[in-house]
Amino acid sequence: MHAQQVLDRPTALVTGGAGFIGSHLCDQLVKNRNVICVDNFITGLEENIDLLLQNPHFKFIRHDLTEPLDLASFPELDVFKVKFQGVQEVYNLACPTSPLQYNRLPLETLAANAAGTKNALDVAFKSGAKIVHASTSAIYGEPTDGKPFTEDYWGYIDPVGPRSCYNEGKRFSESLVSSYGSTKEMQFIIARIFNTYGPRTKLNDGRMIPDMVNKAISNEPMTIYGSADDISTFCYVSDIVDGLIKLMEYSGSGIFNLGSHEQYKLGDIAKLIMQLADVKVPIESKTAPPYLAKQGVPEIIKAKETIGWLPLISLTEGLRQTVDYFRAHHNLKPLGSVGPV
Question: What is the pTM of this model?
Fold first, then answer.
């Protein structure tokens, strides 16, 4: 195990770093850390990290994390002295996360949560590094009593249902992280991430906000799965990234919810997206496909009291930036504007 001595700036390993949340995390970390981004592009995109590739404090390794990862075997990482120092931080985000992704890649999803998580833990243990493992609100299952999910709730989910590869895969990965922590005396964080949105989400991947934005900027009818009066919560990606970094900097270990506690009707979100996109399209309600599930609301008091974290980006501002991003990538006209929500 490497001694934790840092000669220059700390080095962070981000698995799944070309994905939605992972790439935004790399953007922030590279400001004051060396960043090693590992991805196999099974769901991540090279365009998400294009601007980082010219940064001397950023290195990309194309690797399938279900195979063991030996950072010392990559000569391009010599500049970060990983053979002698290892890494100081590990963020494990390598896993398909959208409904269409894990519905299409169930075995790969299970492998990422099992073998992939183990291999990330092995890198952290070898380096004497703390690991922040990205889990999900899906481990709780669907809400049953209308109360926010707290970290001590065990959850209730179907082990063989259409979402089981993701839900049970993440539950197993949490057990793996916790077991490494207790048996190998490793520092660890399990971050249970709730609905997240923002630039770089993929269109048409089964997530409500990017699908709605796509329909709006294409001037096509929006689809709500369920009722327009159904309630959900959405947290902007920069707030989630801020939470992950704060959890890494926290001196202890533990399990934390990260998400927004503010609740909105799905119909109101659809109308706000239309205002921001300056369009008027019909809203259609449909029965949700079996791989979609109702999402619960997080209780985030623990994160607030322990690391001083709260979401800061309003829904209006977050959606404005999201619509702006997708318009720019579709070469469409500038945005309209609305007041705060």
Answer: 0.93
